[in-house]
Amino acid sequence: MTVALTQADRGPLRQVLSKGGIFLFLAALLVLGGIAQPVFLSAGNVSNMLVQLAPLVIVVLGQTFVIISRGLDLSVASIMATAAITPTLFPAGGNANGAIIAATLAVGLAAGVLNGVLVTKRNVSPFLATLATAILLQGLRFAATAGAPSGNIPDLFKSLGTARLVGLPLSVWIAAGLALLCAVLLHKSTYGRQLYIVGGNPVAGELVGIRPDRVIILAYILSGLLSALAGLMLAGFAGVVDNNIGRGFELDSIVAAVIGGVALSGGRGGIAGAVAGAAILVSIFTLVLLIGVPVQAQMIIKGVVILAAAAFYVRRTRF
């Protein structure tokens, strides 16, 4: 009888930790980081972390949709770099902002459609399909720029990464707005419900009249569009472009989503947790640099974080 009561008492606690543990961990990390390195929570450093966080959050939003659909998008970094060099392909001067935005979104749209079609219509694994798209975009990018993009970022797009609104970077407001829109789409819309069903059990989705191909393709399109926007934002912050902008975001976005509770097996996860996962990554890497650990150690720490996230995911699926 005593054992039964103990197990029953553990249920609510486990449920709370399962749903809110990621936010408790983030809060504890921020507090401990501030104790270990007081400058960590200074206004200037927090502002810098938010600027770093904004493009990662935007990419993580798209990656979350894809992972919930039982997929994976390794092309996000290449989409970002291709979007970043897009403004340099237009003549200097004049007012080409509208054309640049259209071309940038077209890059993300085309990449998303290609990924989705390869996965759903040709039955290519998400890993190979998105890797092929990344390589294709890299080749097109190098062909268009001869390996060295030249030109300036128009002022409108520089403001995406450098302007401020009500004391916060504009990029943070954009990322927050997109996160809210994605949360509504994922948790309050018919498409969101269909995505969870398809990710959890594609066969069951078909039995209730859902067309899994359309749902999955749209997830990849969202990932492509959001990655393109993030690439343009990152280029605006840097003020210059190169073919390597966004490098590492494919891994970071997956890790952030998994840390935030998005199941690699599909059908489970949410926007809030994924955003918190991104914040944890940025906080850890910033704290490492402030403490004085060599930059090379970031890869080791990233590997440890991945292993910890994978172990936590396995534990959750067992219990």
What do these coordinates show?
- The chain has helices at residues 2-36, 43-68, 76-85, 97-120, 126-145, 155-162, 170-188, 190-200, 202-207, 212-238, 249-259, 271-291, 297-318, and strands at residues 164-165, 168-169.
- By secondary structure, it is mainly α.
- Strands 1-2 form a two-stranded antiparallel sheet.
- A hairpin with a 2-residue loop joins strand 1 (164-165) and strand 2.
- The longest helix is centred in the first third of the chain and has 35 residues, at 2-36.
- The model is unreliable at 1-9 (pLDDT under 50).
Please give the structural blueprint.
Layout: H1 2-36, H2 43-68, H3 76-85, H4 97-120, H5 126-145, H6 155-162, E1 164-165, E2 168-169, H7 170-188, H8 190-200, H9 202-207, H10 212-238, H11 249-259, H12 271-291, H13 297-318
Antiparallel strand pairs: 1-2
Jot down its keywords.
single chain; 319 residues; mainly alpha; two-stranded antiparallel sheet; 2 strands; 1% strand; globular; disordered N terminus
- Shape descriptor: globular
Written as H for each helix and E for each strand, in order along the chain, the element string is: HHHHHHEEHHHHHHH
Provide a count of the helices: 13
How would you classify the helix and strand content by structural class? Answer: mainly alpha
Percent helix range: over 70%
Biggest β-sheet strands, sense, barrel: 2 strands, antiparallel
Low-confidence stretches: 1-9
Q: Please provide the count of β strands.
A: 2
Mean of residue pLDDT values? 86
Strand proportion, as a percent range, falls in: under 5%
Give the radius of gyration.
Answer: 20 Å
Report strand order across the widest sheet: 1-2
Alpha-carbon distance between the two ends = 22 Å
